[in-house]
Write a structure and sequence with these properties.
The protein is about 45% helix and about 25% strand. It is α/β, with parallel strands linked by helices.
């Protein structure tokens, strides 16, 4: 059945729950998992509310991205280690998380994506739309959505 599962996370409680379910599924199937985080790409200026937000320096941006990715992905590593499921983690910068998730699945030759039904709440979710919905719409490999 499935041999390699991609587990994208955004650090939300629901994505942590989805990661736990993905690890249990991987264990039951004898599969391996890859944890993935799409780091926001702060390489350009952003405009909003009458302000211009300049991109932080590359060194600062890289350090922040590494720290944030490590924090989110370490949770997947710990779950996998506890269940003795082979696991690797990685992240990449992208302004389009759904595209980064699909690209990560292709790059790592995953045959299933397991992800949370949603991450953000409130106004940001309405403005940004559901990354899960976009993955479901554009992915050529199966996607298991956890609630």
């Amino acid at each position: 059945m499935y041999k390699h599962i991609l587990v994208p996370t955004d650090g939300s409680k629901l994505s942590i729950k989805a990661a736990r379910q993905a690890v249990k599924l991987a264990k039951a199937l004898g599969a391996k998992i890859t944890g993935f985080y799409a780091t926001p790409d702060f390489s350009s200026s952003y405009y909003g509310e009458g302000f211009v937000l300049r991109a932080p320096l590359t060194k600062t941006r890289t350090a922040f991205a590494e720290k944030q990715a490590r924090r989110y992905l370490s949770l997947i590593e710990v779950e996998a280690e506890m269940e003795k499921v082979p696991c690797e983690i990685f992240h990449s910068a992208s302004d389009s998380p759904y595209a980064a998730i699909i690209n990560a699945a292709a790059q790592k030759k995953c045959d299933l994506i397991v992800m949370a039904s949603h991450g953000r709440r409130g106004l940001s979710a309405l403005v940004l739309g559901s990354e899960t919905h976009k993955v479901l719409t554009h992915s050529k490999i199966p996607v298991l959505v956890c609630r």
